[in-house]
What we know:
Layout: E1 6-10, E2 13-14, E3 20-24, E4 27-31, E5 39-47, E6 51-61, H1 87-106, E7 127-135, E8 138-144, E9 151-153, H2 170-185, E10 200-208, E11 211-218, H3 226-234, E12 239-246, E13 259-263, E14 268-272, E15 275-279, H4 289-306, E16 310-313, H5 320-325, E17 331-336, H6 339-351, E18 358-362, H7 365-378, E19 383-387, H8 396-405, E20 409-414, H9 417-427, E21 431-439, E22 449-456, H10 459-462
Parallel strand pairs: 4-6, 11-12, 16-17, 16-19, 17-18, 19-20
Antiparallel strand pairs: 1-5, 2-3, 3-4, 5-6, 7-8, 7-10, 8-9, 10-11, 12-13, 14-15, 20-22, 21-22
Amino acid sequence: MKKGDILDLEITSAGMEGEGVARADGMVVFVPLCMQGEKVRVTVKEVNKKFARATVIKVLEASKDRIAPLCPIFYRCGCCDMQHIAYEKQLAIKKANVEACLYKALGRRVDVGDVLGDGKIFGYRNKIQVPLTRVGGKVVAGYFRGNTHKVVPFGEKVREDLGACVMYERGMQDMLDAFLKYANEAGLDCYDEEKHSGFLRHFVARRVGDKYAVTIVANGKKLPLEKKLIKELIDTGMEFSLYFDSNTKKTNVIMSDDIRTVYGEARLDAEICGVHAKVSPLSFMQINDGVRDMIYAAAADAIAKCGVRAVIDAYSGAGVLTNVLAKSADEVYGIEIVKDAVADADELTASCGNADKVRNICGDCAKELPALASRLRGEGKAFSVVLDPPRKGCDRKVLDAILSSMPDAVIYISCNPATLARDLAVLDGNYDIVSVDPYDMFPQTKHVETLVLLSRKNREKRD
């Protein structure tokens, strides 16, 4: 097999990236935008020692689960992966991927629940961050084509309740349209990554409750004609705050920390599972309100079921989940290494009236967790640990800290089945897997969130 070969393949399974998987010449071939049971004609694009990648020329025999994508630019845009697959099949693929990762890491089958969602499979994103470019002399917005930095401009809206990208809602589109009108009438140019020149980089918007936080990211120090943009946004009839992010670095990172408030409030009020938080343009928030609330509520419920009254939130960030968990516990400790995040967590804790039961600790979890666990053990308190790490999973030192402190229960919230399975394999000899529940935080994409409840083995005997 070599690059450029044209092959007819049968797709036999689904890959972790949402692609189809076939075999040819003794090699695994990954083919995006295909699904199990299909026969396809492909062009080989890349050949490695153990696998190859190919793209579809023609679907020869389509699966019964193949559907027409709602988005007109789906096959060219790199935003989502699964719009061509019937939604129930998407959920089945995600569940199977979680099962496969656990089987590979643990060497046995684990009972995995059906993938849960809130029923909203389009228009669920509360945040967009889109690159800006010029096409036909006009400033336009879109998403990068897969594995490139070439912007694919949005197509026309297909439903009145959605934006041009069907992953976000109409209100976000109205804000974007108002900005594009301003940018074109003001004659602004767009950033060129290769030349590190040009002004407009990204348009970022987030819905917080019934208000919008709009951030213009640009390669410059000043936003021209600010009053004109403010008027265009006011004319949408929606409440908003406007921010300007001066990102003059030669970087692919979208936002810098050089942000100023142009109009409105510096931070907006958000309510998450009954916790009232202040959200700035740089605050982290899950992009799907409904499913986030389901996961946080399930984590709090798992704490209640554990029968322990002390909780350590090991990747606590700005403390939102920490304060949600405080509803199910007598004392909660949030551990976070970023000083500014801990300051935000302290403010949030005070505003929630939880200062008597929540303590936020600034430090390295690998060091703070064993010391805190030792103190709780010395006081004769049963405790649990909540892990909500980034996609790369837990630092091995954090897992070692858990093994040395042996909490009575562990609740692991994962956004990556592969690193989840790897980490569970480390804990496996000391913990029983009580439940594995996947959540569809990102419909139409390959991504799946998973909440796992672990219980310490021989807990009664050791206590």
